[in-house]
Write a structure and sequence with these properties.
It is found in: Cell envelope. By secondary structure, the chain is α/β, with parallel strands linked by helices. About 40% of the residues lie in helices and about 20% in strands. It folds into 2 domains: about 1-150 and about 290-320, Rossmann fold (3-Layer(aba) Sandwich), CATH 3.40.50.2300; about 155-285 and about 325-330, Response regulator (Rossmann fold, 3-Layer(aba) Sandwich), CATH 3.40.50. The longest helix has 18 residues, at about 290-305.
Length: about 325
Amino acid sequence: MKKRVLAVLLAGVMTLGLAACGGSGSDSKSESKDSGSSDGDINIAVLLKPESNEYWASMKAGIEDWAKDQDGVSVDVYCAESEDNIQGQLEQMENIISKDYDAICAAPLSASNLVEGVLKACDAGIPVVNVDEGIDADAVKEGGGNMVGMYTTDNVLVGQKAAEYITEQIGSGEVAIIEGTAGNVTSNDRTKGATDYFESQDGMEVVASQPGDWDRLTSIDVATNIMQSNPDLKAFYCANDTMALGVYEAVVNAGKQDKVMVVGTDAIANAKESVKNGELAATVGQDNVGIGVACCELAVKAVKDGWKADPSAEMPVEYIDSFLVTKDNVDDYL
């Protein structure tokens, strides 16, 4: 299944519209990037979110494995130091630009923190592909730049899928949502998808929706407090699996593992093992490696085509399907 999804992703690279910055794969980094890359290697930098999150760590590993099999393409993968080091990630991107890579693929910590970096890359003639987590494309266009395109998951649908599953399992009752960091686009979308679905269902009530900051320990504390304030709570939806594993720990600590179900997001390895063991009820998965590889493929194509920033063009976004992992099908994803 994963091979099929990846094949679809890579085929989709060829269909994305042209709306980005020009680049060159010339061995001489001081040369103009106007002519595209016909000689020498294409050197790509990938800037991801923290490697401490298994979702991004496995994407990094997948991209590096892909790069080993590419002729004439080299890839360096960088990761942000932490979820809250917003300025630090921008500084990483500025350092990458100074090294004059032919293209950059970037997953920001927030919608706005890498906008300045994208504009600097455009000024330098370096195409930028947006990886999974949204960079504010309107702000980039207002600054006179643009990005090649974006591969991501429809995160509103991710939250909706989780809420549908919870509703099917409990029928009615009180539920809570553990969000990511406040203001994060992915977190907002997943929370919206779940909240809107719950609110559309008779008998379902969202009694709390609070940030867990993508952190396991923080989520333990948040979930503990929510359960104390809402003793009739029946389920948690968590915007990623790191938080879901922490929330499940809080549920066990409260002795409510038979009363409160926990559903996560991302289908990381530990979460899938937890589902298999009958702990987490489910997790909504994404093809994170496929997303990362497709972004790199798109970056290579942008360099070869000699793309240039066109602020008047809309940045194309390709949505990749998500999937629900439960105890009934978890073995298919291990």
